[in-house]
Amino acid sequence: MSSGEFCPRCGDPIEPRAEPLPGNPSGRRAQLCDACYFEEFDLVDAPEELVVRICSRCGAVERGEQWVDIGAEDYTDVAIEETTETLGIHVDASDVEWVVDPEQIDQNTVEMHCYFTGIVRETAIETEHSVRVRFSRETCTRCSRIAGDYYASTVQVRAGDRTPTEEETARATEIARELVAKREATGDRNAFITEISDRPGGVDVRLSTTQLGRTVADHIQRELGGTVTDSQTLVTEDEDGNEVYRVTYAVRLPPFPPGAVVKPDGEVPILVRSARGNLKGQRLTTGEQYEADAEDGITPDARRLGDVADARETTLVAVEDDHAVQVLDPDTYEAKTIPRPSYLDPETDTVSVLKHADGLHVLPENAIEDS
Question: Which end is more exposed in the chain, N or C (fewer Cβ atoms within 10 Å of the end residue's Cβ)?
Answer without folding.
Answer: N
